[in-house]
Amino acid sequence: MINFFTFKWGDKYGPEYVTRLKNSLHKYCQTDFTFTCITDKPVDGIDCIDIVHYSLFGESVFTVEKIELMKNVTSGTNVLLDLDILIHGDITEYVTMPIDKPTFVFTYWTPDWHWEKLVPKKTACFMNSSFVRWDGTSAAFLYYHYMKNRDYHIEEYNSLDKYMFYEHYMPNKEDLPFDFWSEGIFYNYNAEGDHQYEFLDDHKICLFNTSHLIRQERRYYELDNTPSEHTEIWESYDE
Fold it and tell me: What is the pLDDT of residues 9-42, one digit of tens each?
C-alpha cells in the first residue's frame, strides 16, 4: 500500500487540481494506494486533514510544512505530490521499488552557470520537492534539523527547497542523507531551455513550479491554460 499526500491552501488552485491528481494516480499507479489532502478547504470525495494541525504552515519558508508531514508520517511507503504536476506515464516502479533514503527531484534542467554565479549567493537551487518519497521514519530528521535552528532557517531561506539544498545537499555532497530520482523521469514545463512549453512523451511527470515565477513577474503557464496538450490530458482526468 502506497500513501500519497498533497497540500492545498488558499485559492490559487481549485478543488479540480486535487481530484485530477488523484485520478491520474488511478491511471498510472498500478498498486493499491491511499490519497490524502492536507488543506484549509475540504474537497468532496477526498480524504482530507485540516492544515491547522500543521504548526509550520504559514511560515515564511515556503512549503516547509512538508517536512512536518515527514515527521508525522513514520510508517509505510509515502509519497508527497505537489498539486501542479501532470502525471502522464506509469509511476508504479518508482513508488514500489526499494529505497534506502528519502528521494527528491534533482533539477537537471537548471543551467550549469547557476553553480558559479548564483549558488554562492544562495539564490539558485538544484533540488525540488514536488515528488518526494520516504519510507518509515527515514525523513523525520529533516524536521528536527530545521527546528533545532528554526529562527536562523527562517531568516536565511525563503523556501523549503533552498533549505534542503543549502543545509543538507551542499555540506554533505560526499555522503548525502537523501537520494534523487534518475534523470529522464521529470521535466519542467516553465523552465527556460530547449524544451520549454513542450510535451516530453518519454518522461513521466511534468512539473510547473510557478510560485517563484509569480514573484519574479515572469511569464508562466499553469496546468489549466497551457498552449500544449498538457491541459487536455489534465482535464481528461475528470473521468
Answer: 999 999 999 999 999 999 999 999 999 999 999 9
Show the 3-state SS of 132-181: EEEECCCCHHHHHHHHHCHHHHHHHCCEHHHHHHHHHHHHHCCCCCCEEC
Spell out the domain ranges in the chain.
Answer: 2-181
Does the reported pTM lie above 0.85? yes
C-alpha cell belonging to residue 94? 518508482
Strand partners for 86: 206
Q: Is 72 strand, coil or helix?
A: helix
SS3 content of the chain, % helix, strand, coil (to 5): 35, 20, 45
Distance from C-alpha of 234 to C-alpha of 223, rounded to nearest angstrom: 7
User: What is 2-181's CATH topology?
Assistant: Spore Coat Polysaccharide Biosynthesis Protein SpsA; Chain A (3.90.550)
* CA atoms of 142 and 125, how far apart (whole Å): 17
